[in-house]
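Quick start: read one record
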Amino acid sequence: AHPGRYKFSVNEEFALFSEFKAHGGQGVEVLTGSHGVADTTKYLGMAQEFSLLASRGSDFPSPEESRIDLGSLPDLPGSVTPVWQVLVDRGLTTPLAALAP
């Protein structure tokens, strides 16, 4: 979680993602309240390059740690597959739209 919090060089980060994928890693957090546009763009690219599922951060430790307000993260771009879509496809959860009154 929170790949943007670690201070890796470009080569170290590429090696981390390579090892993660090689050992069965399936998803990466692309978007969080602490990511700026550059971080989001970088991790979106890594998700695409390594064929990883994408997630967005759901935790909100404090207003001081977040660049945005609680509950206002943007949607994931359509160019990546969200982790939760795979869960729905496998019948492991119910789509939110189906829960609406």
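The first helix runs from residue 10 to 22.
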